[in-house]
Amino acid sequence: MDTDHITDTSDTSDTSNTSSATSENAPGALAKHTGASQAPRRTTSEKPQRAIFVAVALLVACLLGLMTFQVIGASGATQQPNMLQAVRTPGLNPRRGPMMRIVVDAQSVQRLYTTILKLPHIPRNAIFSCPTDDGTMWTLTFWHGTTTVAHVTVDDMGCQFLFINGQDGRMTALSNFWQVFAATIALPQSQV
Q1: What is the arrangement of strands in the sheet containing 83-89, beginning at the earlier edge strand?
Q2: What is the pLDDT of residues 31-76, one digit of tens each?
Q3: Other Cβ atoms closer than 10 A to 177
Q4: 3-class secondary-structure state, position 143
Q5: pLDDT higher for 134 or 84?
Q6: pLDDT score recorded for residue 39
Q7: How far, CA to CA in Å, does 142 sit from each of 74, 109, 113?
Q8: Is the pLDDT of residue 174 over 90?
Q9: What distance in Å separates the CA atoms of residue 173 and residue 41, rounded to the nearest whole number?
Q10: Residue 152: Cβ-neighbour burial (10 angstroms; 0-12, 13-18, 19+)
Q11: What percent of the chain has a predicted confidence (pLDDT) above 90?
């Protein structure tokens, strides 16, 4: 039983019933009842708990701040990419095999990135009748140094939708995206 918060409730007129502890601050000591209500004293174990709570709260605040920074960076609002990794994952068409290209020309990478951000959004609740899609997909990872700025997936056939960071859907058909992309990765547009 925790005795740190126990008070003596005997009648104050009886002076013979006093605490036998030698110090009021001794653990387990009984406080003499003075007639006024006393708030329970804080134990020394509550101070480390408070410090731990404050430390955890600060850690959570810092992590939320970092997550916000990464989301802003991922949308390109704070960093412009200077490197691109483009990977083609083949679908059912055997003539279009896997491919990977690394582009370090910052100007070309930024031109492609800007082209992507200017693409029209996929309209909400729209119904599309897309041509045949064999499942071929490009995965584009835009970097600024060692930090990922954006992760983009592009359907090579079908509706040719593009998704920035898995959520922001854009339409590449009827745009200059494929021309800019082919020039960026140094391939003829027919081989992209």
Answers
A1: 99-103, 83-89, 137-144, 147-155, 161-164, 168-171
A2: 444 445 555 555 555 566 666 655 555 554 544 444 433 333 444 4
A3: 20
A4: strand
A5: 84
A6: 54
A7: 9, 8, 8
A8: no
A9: 71
A10: buried
A11: 43
Q: What per-residue confidence (pLDDT) applies to 126?
A: 84
- Tokens representing residue 10 in the block: 């005997």
Characterize the bridge pairing of strands 161-164 and 147-155: antiparallel
Tokens describing residue 172: 């590449």
- For the beta carbon of residue 58, count every other beta carbon within 10 angstroms: 10
Domain ranges of the chain: 42-74, 83-123+133-191
Q: Is pTM beyond 0.85 here? A: no
Which runs of E-coded beta strand occur in 56-175? 83-89, 99-103, 137-144, 147-155, 161-164, 168-171
Can you read off the two tokens belonging to residue 51? 């410090």
Tokens in use for 161? 């939708």
Is residue 69 a contact partner of residue 134, using CB atoms and an 8 Å limit? no
Per-residue CA distances from 101 to 41, 139, 140, 150, 181 (Å): 68, 11, 10, 16, 11
**For 31, which DSSP code?**
B
- List of residues 6+ apart from 121 with CB closer than 8 A: 168, 169, 170, 171
Question: If 0-12 CB within 10 Å is exposed, 13-18 middle and 19+ buried, where does residue 109 land?
Answer: buried
DSSP 131: -
